[in-house]
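Example 9 (inverse folding). The structure is encoded as follows.
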């Protein structure tokens, strides 16, 4: 997997959304340069599942020999961040932006658009590698994840749960994720869309910075 490290300090793993790359975190990594921001590109080779993507992240973490780290995940990256927190004891704090627990928690309009996208991509999959990857990633979003709220109760670390007021994820799912987590902080960005780091950066960064600084207050003394 490709990754980039920016800054120095406590490590933060940053996980991008469906079909993106680590550059979605370019601005926030610069602003959080007092932390060691580790920006990963997902490995989309072979059969794709959220568990495979999670396993790939774990391999990088082990290769970097990180004994403790935080995770910031956007969209699909937020799903993987929750999975990491359930599987890895070295995760200390998590921030999710626009994560969902189940495909049916995506609003119907966006599900409909995704099926239209699959139909449009299908003819191009015969000869285009890029179209085949887009097809796989769209299908992944429509078939996974399947995270129960009960399983989230096993995450015994602080989690900042964020979403936009007009996110493509149903607000009930965002609310239920926060309720299921024993130590959660919920922030819904007013007027915000799914793409908080792009379109509502100032408000989003303010909440992330405050959460991280409170969590690491003792480290900075």
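The amino acid assigned to each position is listed next.
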């Amino acid at each position: 997997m490709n990754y980039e490290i920016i800054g120095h300090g406590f490590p933060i793993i940053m996980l991008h959304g469906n079909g993106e790359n680590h550059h979605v975190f370019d601005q926030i990594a610069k602003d959080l340069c007092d932390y060691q921001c580790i920006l990963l590109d997902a490995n989309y080779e072979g059969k794709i599942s959220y568990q495979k993507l999670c396993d790939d992240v774990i391999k990088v973490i082990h290769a970097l020999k990180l004994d403790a780290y935080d995770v910031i995940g956007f969209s699909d990256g937020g799903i993987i961040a929750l999975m990491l927190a359930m599987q890895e004891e070295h995760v200390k704090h998590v921030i999710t932006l626009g994560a969902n627990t189940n495909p049916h928690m995506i609003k119907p309009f966006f599900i409909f658009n995704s099926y239209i996208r699959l139909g449009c991509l299908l003819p191009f999959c015969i000869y285009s590698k890029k179209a085949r990857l887009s097809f796989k990633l769209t299908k992944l979003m429509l078939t996974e994840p399947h995270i129960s709220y009960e399983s989230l109760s096993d995450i015994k670390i602080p989690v900042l749960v964020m979403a936009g007021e007009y996110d493509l994820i149903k607000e009930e799912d965002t609310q239920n994720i926060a309720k299921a987590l024993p130590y959660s902080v919920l922030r819904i960005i007013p007027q915000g869309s799914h793409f908080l780091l792009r379109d509502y950066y100032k408000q989003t960064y303010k909440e992330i910075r405050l959460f991280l600084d409170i969590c690491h207050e003792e480290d900075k003394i």
